[in-house]
Amino acid sequence: MQSPSKLHFKWPVPLDLTALNPINSIRQGQRKRSNSKGKARTPGNESVAALRTSFSISQSLRTLRRHKWCWFDLQHLFLACLCSFSLFIIGVHAPLIKTAAALGYVLLLLMPATRQFFLPSWPIWTYLLYFFSSRYIPTEVRPHIWVKVLPALENVLYGANLSNILSAHTHPVLDLFAWIPYGIGHFANPLICSILIFLFAAPKTLPVFAKSFGWLSIFGVTMALVFPCTPPWYENKYGLAPAHYGMPGSPAGLARVDALFGVDMYTTSFTTAPVPFGAFPSLHAADATLEALFMSHCFPKFRPFFIFYVGWLWWATMYLSHHYAVDLVGGSLAAAAIFFTARTRWLPHQQLEKAHRWDYDFVEVGEMKKAADEEYGYGLGLLERRETGDSDEWSLSSGSAYSSTVIGSDSGPASPTEDRRSGESSFSRTTPGSPVSQLNGVSIQ
């Protein structure tokens, strides 16, 4: 008698996702993501958030000799030339003091403990020197002052002069409400943002913010010098009469704030401003927009507040008769261009599970584009280990320093696990036939 046929049941073999990966040329443990920047090792076991404490000039000189020069290093030459020009036009008085100031700053750049702060912020100090020394530029070489351009653009783009409309009705409460962002926030926010970014954002974010802020300010002052335009207070005071150099500036609506408090906080400083006809672009709007973009990148939960603050400052500048709406648009567009350029090339990514900078074991910079295997839909790019290179603190992208050490499981879901001694990625590869496999310590059933 023939026995009945039997059906054989077996447990299904786990799917080996690595077999579906179209990229098979390099080992998975050493493959580099095609569209992201590599990591640079931090020497030894130094934390990526560590600060330098050495004052050895010889150490800086050795680092400078090892530096690989590139086109971005021309920024340092440009800043040095702009500082020299600003010191030169101030006048012939006190040459020893100006020479001592220049040598003192060079000394700050040569000591590692001070260079980590003064090299990224060099554009800011250059901007301040450039701004206050611009009053000494001879009148003969200065361009024509444009009086009718901004009012005409305002009417063409918006159909009316928005600044005059908003400033037509004033009130002490509105004066105080406008004074907070324009008279206090504009001067205090750079310091406040720097402290918050340094403490709670990813390491190396602050140098990118400082350089962006400084170059944006240098651009704003340069535009004010080569394309001087009169602000709304000039139209309210002089109409469309031609302007000339030597005319005093004006605090405009801030004079009411001085009268309200009975002190001279703005009247004298704005009347004797080095650049009274620097209406376009508005550095108030540019700085607020840049700060809002960086803070939104670092603290995305508070993005609605940052957007509100920019709108608040826009209203305040027009209410106080310091800028036309077209000035605000120009300043914000310049800030956005600088921010998105910095984010694409140099700005570190935030790891939202980290509470402060000392929680970071590594950072990544640049846009996180999908690797080829992710574009095919297999999603294995997150498991790749990226090759490492050497960081260089003298380069523009000196913020892209990384630590290759990951401790425990606190490094986040996309962080590679490495052995400190060998530097090899410790992956437990998926084995066909095994019901459970381990990938980076995560069980996959």
From TrEMBL:
Q: Where is the Phosphatidic acid phosphatase type 2/haloperoxidase domain?
A: 206-343
Comp. bias intervals (Basic residues): 29-40
Q: Where is the composition biased (Polar residues)?
A: 394-414, 424-445
The segments labelled Disordered in the record are 27-47, 390-445
Provide this UniProt record's keywords sorted from A to Z.
Answer: Membrane, Transmembrane, Transmembrane helix
Residue ranges of the TM segments: 76-97, 179-201, 213-234
The membrane-topology field of this record reads:
Multi-pass membrane protein
Q: Pfam families in the record, alphabetically?
A: PAP2_3
Q: State its location(s).
A: Membrane
Q: Which InterPro entries match?
A: Aur1/Ipt1, IPC_Synthase-Related, PAP2/HPO, PAP2/HPO_sf
Quote the SMART domains the UniProt record gives.
acidPPc
Matching entries from PANTHER family are given as: INOSITOL PHOSPHORYLCERAMIDE SYNTHASE CATALYTIC SUBUNIT AUR1, PTHR31310
The molecule here is called: Phosphatidic acid phosphatase type 2/haloperoxidase domain-containing protein
Give the source species: Apiospora phragmitis
